[in-house]
Amino acid sequence: MKLTLKIWRQENAKATGKMVSYPIDGIEGDMSFLEMLDVLNEELVAKGEDPVEFDHDCREGICGTCSLQINGEPHGPDRLITTCQLHMRKFNDGDTIVIEPFRANAFPVVKDLIVDRSAFDRIQQAGGYVSVNTSGNTIDANSIPVNKHDADDSFAAATCIGCGACVAACKNASAMLFTSAKVSQYALLPQGQVEATDRVMNMVRQMDLEGFGNCTNTGACEIECPKGISLENIARMNREYLSASTKG
Ligand code: SF4
Ligand code: FES
């Protein structure tokens, strides 16, 4: 395949960015999207030019770092996959592909296609954990019965990989789907009840402090989420928040 790539180039968070066009040839349908970018970068390096910076690590849909806006969609045109799992067979010879970083005020550009998603880390640090008594009297987690339905829903929420596609897809740059997944995975388990009130209050407060927008029930986040995180988690977080607020 012969393609034209229009890629966002930006030196750092303060610099003005711009779209730059790169023609590319010899792309196979079985290549992943990131492998296609590897080919481009090898060509740029061979010409003595600055390669395009993009985030990646596992390249198998686990780490959540490979976050690209491809033709206006987070993680590209396919559903329930990350950018590293997107294959070039989804595109046609002669296509122009527009590649941008995830855009949100809370995700400042580091360079080119890499954004700083440490805002998500701070939301997680605000309450996305359980405290465990390790004094020697620790109760084996397996000895606490958990309703199967709740265990399944908790597991589903825990599959969120923190990629940020939900924020990039949202017209409000809301982080409600991410935060609600992290709240839900504990809210559904007995082990999460001890800190439940503080958890939801602190995580929502941090989410607001980071500058993410609010949810207006559009649902774009759920559609673009590579892990199929359900909007039901947002409803659960709202219930948890209301309940925590009334406890003072
Ligand atoms: S909710 Fe989905 S889109 Fe949002 S960070 Fe988690 S995995 Fe990514
Ligand atoms: S590189 Fe890890 S999810 Fe894509």
TrEMBL record:
List the Pfam families: Fer2_3 (PF13085), Fer4_8 (PF13183)
Q: Name one GO molecular function term.
A: electron transfer activity
| Sequence ranges assigned to domain 2Fe-2S ferredoxin-type in this UniProt record | 1-103
Q: Which domain of life is it from?
A: Bacteria
Q: Which cofactor does it need?
A: [3Fe-4S] cluster; [2Fe-2S] cluster
User: PANTHER family annotated for this entry?
Assistant: SUCCINATE DEHYDROGENASE, SUCCINATE DEHYDROGENASE IRON-SULFUR PROTEIN
UniProt family annotation: Belongs to the succinate dehydrogenase/fumarate reductase iron-sulfur protein family.
Return the protein name.
Answer: Succinate dehydrogenase/fumarate reductase iron-sulfur subunit
Q: Which organism is it from?
A: Zunongwangia atlantica 22II14-10F7
